[in-house]
Amino acid sequence: MTFERLRRPMISAGLLCAAIAAVGLATPSAAFELAPTPKGAAGHQGDKVKHPPRKGVASKYSTTAKGTGLLSYHGGTNGVGVTTGPPKVVLVFWGSQWGTKSVDAGTGISTFTNDPMGVAPLLQRFFKGLGTNNETWSGVMTELCEGVAYGATVCPANVPHVGYPTGGALAGVIYDGATAAPTTASDAQIAAVAVKAATTAGNTTPASNRNTQYVVLSSTGLHPGGFNAPL
Fold it and tell me: What average pLDDT does the structure give for the chain?
């Protein structure tokens, strides 16, 4: 299994950090980097770039490039460039500091007593809504792919592309609250929580984790990975 972790400050939502540990997954940021675009080439500032169709999603998009270059493929991690099936997300609320969990019988949304800004239900509704009601925001990532040469800046239609989260991306909610989470958790501790969550979710093989991300969330007042820790 391989891991990647992204930290996202969520001060306005009452969280200090959302740490993403992806099991058996390489995110597009690890597979692609910006490549310089020659003046006058497709993708130069002001030119429209059309992307090849992918399952009726990516074909909807054309954009005006405003940066200085195109993304180029850099080989991925351990042979994995991008997710290639419908992306799934498991939210892991780590630590007894979240308080008591309850589940709404009508919506299935989990809430916690120590969640003053209501972050938990907001995240669940967000990931549930991805890939529904013909939303096109998720389609942007379907333009990325693997199975191309190092340095490639074009994703042909016949190679594996990032999938579209049809029907919603939320695959589960786990409350790992038997004990308190550390005030300042290390990267290794966060990764261990993600591995435990994968087992809880029944995903115990690389194949079952290929397109699943485990988002480990610490309660307000904590400093995972040293984020926002007092100097």
Answer: 77
